[in-house]
Specification:
With 405 residues, the protein is α/β, with parallel strands linked by helices. Helix content is 39%, strand content 18%. It folds into two domains: 19-51 and 311-404, Aspartate Aminotransferase, domain 1 (Alpha-Beta Complex); 65-293, 3-Layer(aba) Sandwich (Aspartate Aminotransferase, domain 2), CATH 3.40.640.10. The chain has helices at residues 40-43, 52-64, 75-87, 99-116, 137-143, 146-149, 167-173, 197-210, 280-293, 298-319, 342-351, 374-404, and strands at 19-23, 26-29, 34-37, 92-96, 124-128, 159-162, 178-183, 186-187, 193-194, 213-217, 241-244, 255-259, 324-330, 333-338, 354-355, 357-359, 363-366. Bound molecules: pyridoxal-5'-phosphate.
């Protein structure tokens, strides 16, 4: 299953499968076989593959200008920032090339805010167990996953991790050095865990009462994934800083850190930078995604698809209760908590020509492109159904053999 003859650094255990093109929710392998894509490049390909509007926008931009650096104005970036701000709580945007970089900007911004507010001693950030914020040293320290930190020297100081959904633990963690609280409204990698609304509200209040900033990591949930443009928008709780990335470029690497004027007040000229961040090609991709996702009816369709998918998954769970323990998630960020190891389900689904991705807490994530239609959902359900049947049979057989020996 693992391809070994490669000069790529082996930090990923890759499936021995390569794709050469894609059409909508379908990926075509080098063997010619068609796979139903329920991974979307890990929540990236929001518009599926080879979306005509994306292809046109990128082709046109590629013929004009790719990169100029941030020493000059970039009208496409000003336009995208303007659109992101008019659609959200934010007043200002810094563009980057990835989620982890957007997190770096958010972490620096929160520290700088406190410093610019006359409280330079405040630099610590409260984070949550099971979180994922990226793989740079600061984002990893925020993530706090021991497995990812092991062997990389002392983790960057300044992060206090507390159990998820435990308000008393958050209160205890807040001290004279605390600058901010950082959370994903839906924990993606951590197992598709939706943060309960009362908890989010309580975090907002704690921040307001203590002069802290609230940072939402919407790198996975943002840009339509949950059926709203951003997940926070159906919670009624607004952050001070928000990171986004994944779906923003629809497959082109783009990340962004959004903030209010107040939260960003320390980030003056010279305090932060990026050579590539916000280049015209990336901004053309971002604007093309926004054209489609904010078009009338698009997010309503996402909500409808999500409802259909959720109902059908609930039916599957009832019929395959020995395989699926729980269906959870928000919008088209769905998770199946499995009875057998989640990796077995991912393998079985791949055998059914459907690709998914595992997450923490023994969950299989279902992340279809947002453009999926009902017919494609029905096809996915049929494949999940067959995979569940096979897994149930395999486990029943294994249990029988165990009894027999
Ligand atoms: C993917 C992800 C990141 C990291 O993004 P990269 O582009 O891989 O650096 C951070 N936070 C969340 C919630 C993510 O899902």
């Amino acid at each position: 299953m693992i391809a070994v003859t490669s000069h790529l650094l082996p930090t990923y255990s890759r499936a021995d499968l390569a794709f050469e093109r894609g059409e909508g929710v379908w990926l075509v392998a080098t063997t010619g076989e068609r796979y139903l894509d329920f991974t979307s490049g890990v929540a990236v390909n929001a518009l599926g593959h080879a979306h005509p509007h994306m292809v046109k926008a990128l082709t046109e931009q590629a013929q004009k200008l790719w990169h100029v650096s941030n020493l000059y104005r970039i009208p496409e970036g000003e336009k995208l920032a303007d659109r992101l701000c008019s659609a959200t709580f934010a007043d200002t945007v810094f563009f980057q090339n990835s989620g982890a970089e957007a997190m770096e900007c958010a972490i620096k911004m929160a520290r700088k805010y406190q410093s610019a507010s006359g409280k330079p001693e405040r630099y610590r950030i409260v984070t949550f167990e099971g979180a994922f914020h990226g793989r740079t040293l600061a984002a990893l320290a925020a993530t706090g996953n021991k497995k990812y930190l092991d062997g990389f020297g002392p983790p960057m100081p300044g992060f206090d991790q507390v159990p998820f959904n435990d308000l008393d633990a958050v209160k205890k963690a807040i001290g004279p050095e605390t600058a901010a609280i950082l959370i994903e409204p839906v924990m993606g990698e951590g197992g598709v865990r939706v943060v309960p609304l009362p908890f989010l509200r309580a975090l907002r209040k704690l921040c307001d009462d203590n002069g802290l900033l609230l940072i939402f990591d919407e790198i996975q949930t943002g840009v339509g994934r949950t059926g709203d443009l951003f997940a926070y928008q159906h919670t009624g709780v607004e952050p001070d800083i928000m990171t986004i990335a994944k779906a923003l470029g629809g497959g082109f690497p783009v990340g962004a850190c959004l903030a209010t004027t107040e939260a960003s007040k320390g980030m003056t000229a010279g305090t932060h930078g990026s050579t590539f961040g916000g280049n015209p090609l990336a901004m053309a991709a971002g604007n093309a995604v926004m054209d489609v996702v904010t078009a009338k009816g698009f997010l309503d369709n996402v909500k409808n698809s999500a409802l259909v998918l959720k109902q059908k998954l609930a039916e599957l769970k009832d019929r395959h209760s020995s395989v699926i323990a729980e269906v959870r998630g928000d919008g088209l960020l769905m998770g199946l908590r499995m009875v057998p190891p989640a990796a077995e389900m991912v393998d079985e689904l791949r055998a059914e020509k459907m690709i998914t991705v595992a997450a923490g807490d023994n969950v299989v994530r279902l992340l279809p492109p947002l453009v999926i239609n009902e017919e494609e959902i029905a096809e996915a359900i049929a494949r999940i159904d067959r995979a569940c049947t096979t897994l149930a049979q395999n486990h029943a057989r294994a249990a029988k053999e165990k009894v027999a020996t």
